[in-house]
Protein backbone atom coordinates (compact mmCIF):
# COMPACT_ATOMS: atom_id res chain seq x y z
CA UNK A 1 0.00 0.00 0.00
CA UNK A 2 1.78 3.17 -1.12
CA UNK A 3 1.59 6.47 0.69
CA UNK A 4 -0.29 9.22 -1.18
CA UNK A 5 0.39 12.96 -1.46
CA UNK A 6 -2.80 15.03 -1.60
CA UNK A 7 -3.89 18.60 -2.18
CA UNK A 8 -2.38 20.49 0.79
CA UNK A 9 0.85 20.03 -1.19
CA UNK A 10 -0.63 22.23 -3.92
CA UNK A 11 0.67 25.71 -3.24
CA UNK A 12 3.10 24.39 -0.61
CA UNK A 13 5.66 21.95 -2.13
CA UNK A 14 7.60 22.10 1.12
CA UNK A 15 9.86 19.12 0.15
CA UNK A 16 10.59 18.13 3.77
CA UNK A 17 9.18 14.74 2.76
CA UNK A 18 11.90 14.34 0.12
CA UNK A 19 14.61 15.00 2.70
CA UNK A 20 13.43 12.22 5.03
CA UNK A 21 12.52 9.55 2.49
CA UNK A 22 15.10 6.74 2.72
CA UNK A 23 14.48 5.40 -0.79
CA UNK A 24 14.16 8.60 -2.89
CA UNK A 25 10.64 7.72 -4.05
CA UNK A 26 9.17 11.27 -3.81
CA UNK A 27 9.52 13.46 -6.89
CA UNK A 28 10.27 15.87 -8.37
CA UNK A 29 13.12 16.85 -6.06
CA UNK A 30 14.18 20.52 -6.06
CA UNK A 31 17.23 19.56 -8.11
CA UNK A 32 15.17 17.94 -10.88
CA UNK A 33 14.07 20.10 -13.85
CA UNK A 34 10.43 19.10 -13.41
CA UNK A 35 10.24 20.81 -10.01
CA UNK A 36 9.36 24.24 -11.43
CA UNK A 37 6.70 22.76 -13.67
CA UNK A 38 4.77 20.56 -11.26
CA UNK A 39 1.91 21.71 -9.08
CA UNK A 40 2.68 19.23 -6.29
CA UNK A 41 4.97 16.31 -5.50
CA UNK A 42 4.23 12.62 -6.07
CA UNK A 43 5.10 9.30 -4.40
CA UNK A 44 6.09 6.41 -6.68
CA UNK A 45 3.78 3.58 -5.56
CA UNK A 46 6.17 0.75 -6.39
CA UNK A 47 9.20 2.36 -4.78
CA UNK A 48 7.56 3.49 -1.51
CA UNK A 49 8.44 1.05 1.29
CA UNK A 50 5.73 2.32 3.67
CA UNK A 51 8.28 3.55 6.22
CA UNK A 52 6.06 6.42 7.36
CA UNK A 53 8.84 9.00 7.71
CA UNK A 54 7.24 11.49 5.33
CA UNK A 55 3.94 11.85 7.20
CA UNK A 56 5.14 13.79 10.27
CA UNK A 57 7.66 15.68 8.12
CA UNK A 58 4.98 17.38 6.03
CA UNK A 59 3.98 20.71 7.62
CA UNK A 60 0.54 20.67 6.01
CA UNK A 61 -0.42 16.99 6.59
CA UNK A 62 -0.68 16.29 2.88
CA UNK A 63 0.36 12.63 3.03
CA UNK A 64 -1.92 9.65 3.77
CA UNK A 65 -0.56 6.22 4.62
CA UNK A 66 -2.52 4.21 2.05
CA UNK A 67 -4.94 4.47 -0.82
CA UNK A 68 -7.68 3.23 1.53
CA UNK A 69 -7.09 5.99 4.07
CA UNK A 70 -7.01 8.69 1.38
CA UNK A 71 -10.26 10.69 1.82
CA UNK A 72 -12.94 10.50 -0.88
CA UNK A 73 -12.25 14.04 -2.08
CA UNK A 74 -8.61 13.11 -2.71
CA UNK A 75 -9.06 9.81 -4.55
CA UNK A 76 -8.37 11.39 -7.94
CA UNK A 77 -4.86 12.23 -6.82
CA UNK A 78 -4.02 8.55 -6.19
CA UNK A 79 -3.65 8.08 -9.94
CA UNK A 80 -1.61 11.28 -10.24
CA UNK A 81 0.89 9.87 -7.71
CA UNK A 82 0.93 6.59 -9.64
CA UNK A 83 1.54 7.95 -13.14
CA UNK A 84 4.16 10.63 -12.41
CA UNK A 85 7.69 9.75 -13.56
CA UNK A 86 10.67 12.10 -13.50
CA UNK A 87 12.19 12.38 -16.96
CA UNK A 88 9.04 11.21 -18.76
CA UNK A 89 7.30 14.24 -20.29
CA UNK A 90 4.08 12.39 -21.08
CA UNK A 91 3.86 11.01 -17.55
CA UNK A 92 4.54 14.43 -16.03
CA UNK A 93 1.84 15.98 -18.22
CA UNK A 94 -0.66 13.25 -17.36
CA UNK A 95 -0.06 13.68 -13.63
CA UNK A 96 -0.45 17.44 -13.94
CA UNK A 97 -3.70 17.01 -15.92
CA UNK A 98 -5.08 14.88 -13.11
CA UNK A 99 -4.06 17.54 -10.58
CA UNK A 100 -5.70 20.30 -12.62
CA UNK A 101 -8.88 18.22 -12.87
CA UNK A 102 -8.80 17.85 -9.10
CA UNK A 103 -8.33 21.61 -8.67
CA UNK A 104 -11.25 22.33 -11.03
CA UNK A 105 -13.51 19.86 -9.24
CA UNK A 106 -12.68 21.05 -5.72
CA UNK A 107 -12.87 24.83 -5.75
CA UNK A 108 -14.16 24.61 -2.18
CA UNK A 109 -10.96 22.96 -0.94
CA UNK A 110 -8.73 25.18 -3.04
CA UNK A 111 -10.29 28.21 -1.34
CA UNK A 112 -9.01 26.88 2.00
CA UNK A 113 -5.40 27.80 2.92
CA UNK A 114 -3.10 24.76 2.37
CA UNK A 115 -2.32 24.47 6.08
CA UNK A 116 -6.04 24.03 6.85
CA UNK A 117 -6.92 21.83 3.88
CA UNK A 118 -6.21 18.45 5.50
CA UNK A 119 -8.67 19.29 8.29
CA UNK A 120 -11.22 20.14 5.61
CA UNK A 121 -10.76 16.69 4.00
CA UNK A 122 -12.68 15.13 6.85
CA UNK A 123 -15.75 17.34 6.41
FE1 LIG B 1 7.17 5.95 1.33
FE2 LIG B 1 7.09 8.19 2.71
FE3 LIG B 1 8.76 6.29 3.38
S1 LIG B 1 6.95 7.96 0.54
S2 LIG B 1 9.24 5.26 1.55
S3 LIG B 1 6.53 6.19 3.41
S4 LIG B 1 9.17 8.47 3.42
FE1 LIG C 1 4.29 18.47 -0.32
FE2 LIG C 1 4.32 18.13 2.26
FE3 LIG C 1 6.14 17.01 0.79
S1 LIG C 1 3.82 20.00 1.19
S2 LIG C 1 6.39 18.41 -0.90
S3 LIG C 1 3.97 16.57 0.72
S4 LIG C 1 6.46 17.92 2.79
Features:
123 residues, two-stranded antiparallel sheet, mainly alpha, single chain, globular, 7% strand, binds FE3-S4 cluster, Alpha-Beta Plaits
Structure commentary:
With 123 residues, the chain is mainly α. It has a single domain (4-121), classed as Alpha-Beta Plaits, CATH 3.30.70. Helices cover 37% and strands 7% of the residues. The chain has 6 helices and 4 strands. The strands form 2 sheets. Strands 1-4 form a two-stranded antiparallel sheet. Strands 2-3 form a two-stranded antiparallel sheet. α3 packs antiparallel against α4 (89-105). The mean pLDDT is 97. The site of one FE3-S4 cluster has 14 residues, from loops.
* Total domains: 1
Number of helices: 6
CATH fold description: Alpha-Beta Plaits
CATH architecture assignment name: 2-Layer Sandwich
What's the total number of strands? 4
**In CATH, what is the class?**
Alpha Beta
Tell me roughly what share of residues is in helical segments: 25-40%
> C-alpha Rg, in Å?
13 Å
- What does the main sheet amount to? 2 strands, antiparallel
Terminal-residue CA separation: 24 Å
Q: Name the poorly predicted regions.
A: none
**Class of secondary structure makeup:** mainly alpha
Spatial strand sequence of the major β-sheet = 1-4
Which SSEs are present, and which pair or pack?
Elements: E1 4-5, H1 16-20, E2 26-27, E3 42-43, H2 54-57, E4 63-64, H3 76-83, H4 89-105, H5 107-110, H6 114-121
At a glance:
This protein has helices at residues 16-20, 54-57, 76-83, 89-105, 107-110, 114-121; strands at 4-5, 26-27, 42-43, 63-64. It is mainly alpha-helical. A two-stranded antiparallel ribbon has the order 1-4. A two-stranded antiparallel sheet has the order 2-3.
Amino acid sequence: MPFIITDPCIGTKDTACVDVCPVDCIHPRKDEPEFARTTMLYIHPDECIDCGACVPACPVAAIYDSTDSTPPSQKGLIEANAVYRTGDDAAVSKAEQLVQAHVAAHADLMAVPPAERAAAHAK
